[in-house]
């Protein structure tokens, strides 16, 4: 497959372990994942990781809701390493577009990952801001689009068509819900897909023989029923 797999998580030891996996091309995280992982010092967490793994990209998100403060935070985060991309949300919490901020940062040479994107209108806005800047990414939250009952594929394909003239901009399929999303992302030519650490454990399943997989599933159900001690009395059915 050509699609690059980025591990999405915030457990430091898991990230370091995954860095030894040649399938993993980069790393992303976000404040929600870091909170769940119990991270208390954001900057130390980010700096430690970028020092330990300097050969692949990392994406770290700004924390402010004010665009001026976001800009200062973005510059600080970018200073953590040459492999750092700064995650800028597509809007602030008031729904105001971050496109002007993205433009200013791109003009200053900051590598940006525009995050939480879900519509082609949003894609159009940020491409204008990124098209003459350094390497950057646009993260379309395909899983959340699907959660809303919408097919994310037309949005992802539409984004790829719009980005074709700007090879320094890569599309990220974000928030996948199942392993098959990796196959789908590869099929449409998506550049990157973020995959949670739990979902990454299933990677060896790709390409399994389905007859063999079916048999293993039957064996699992049988063994679990036996281990649980389940029984059914069938004597009353005999006449």
Descriptive notes:
It is a single chain. This protein has 239 residues and is α/β, with parallel strands linked by helices. It has a single domain (4-205), classed as TIM Barrel, CATH 3.20.20. It contains 11 helices and 8 strands. It has helices at residues 12-18, 31-36, 42-52, 67-78, 99-107, 120-130, 142-147, 153-163, 180-188, 197-200, 210-228, and strands at 4-8, 24-28, 58-61, 84-89, 112-117, 136-141, 169-174, 192-196. The chain has an 8-stranded parallel β-barrel with strand order 1-2-3-4-5-6-7-8, surrounded by 5 helices. The longest helix is centred in the C-terminal third of the chain and has 19 residues, at 210-228. The protein is elongated. It starts with a strand and ends in an 11-residue tail after the last helix. The relative contact order is 0.12.
Distinctive features:
single chain, 239 residues, alpha/beta, TIM Barrel, 8-stranded parallel beta barrel, 11 helices, 8 strands, elongated
């Amino acid at each position: 497959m050509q699609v690059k797999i980025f591990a999405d998580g915030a457990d430091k030891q898991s990230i370091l372990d995954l860095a030894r996996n040649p399938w993993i091309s980069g790393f992303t995280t976000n404040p929600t994942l870091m909170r769940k992982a119990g991270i208390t010092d954001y900057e130390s967490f980010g700096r430690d990781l970028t020092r330990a793994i300097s050969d692949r990209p990392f994406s770290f998100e700004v924390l402010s809701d004010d665009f001026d403060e976001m800009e200062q935070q973005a510059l600080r985060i970018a200073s953590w390493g040459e492999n750092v991309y700064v995650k800028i949300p597509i809007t602030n919490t008031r729904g105001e577009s971050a496109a002007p901020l993205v433009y200013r940062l791109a003009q200053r040479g900051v590598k940006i990952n525009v995050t939480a994107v879900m519509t082609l209108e949003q894609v159009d806005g940020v491409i204008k801001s990124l098209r003459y800047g350094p390497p950057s990414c646009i993260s379309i939250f395909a899983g959340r689009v699907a959660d809303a009952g919408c097919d994310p594929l037309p949005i992802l394909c539409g984004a790829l068509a719009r980005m074709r003239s700007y090879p320094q901009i890569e599309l990220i399929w974000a928030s996948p819900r199942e392993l098959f999303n990796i196959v789908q992302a590869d099929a449409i030519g998506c550049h990157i897909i973020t995959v949670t650490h739990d979902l990454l454990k299933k990677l060896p399943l790709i390409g399994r023989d389905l007859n063999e997989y079916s048999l293993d599933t039957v064996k699992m159900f049988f063994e679990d029923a036996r281990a649980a001690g389940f029984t059914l009395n069938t004597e009353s059915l005999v006449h």
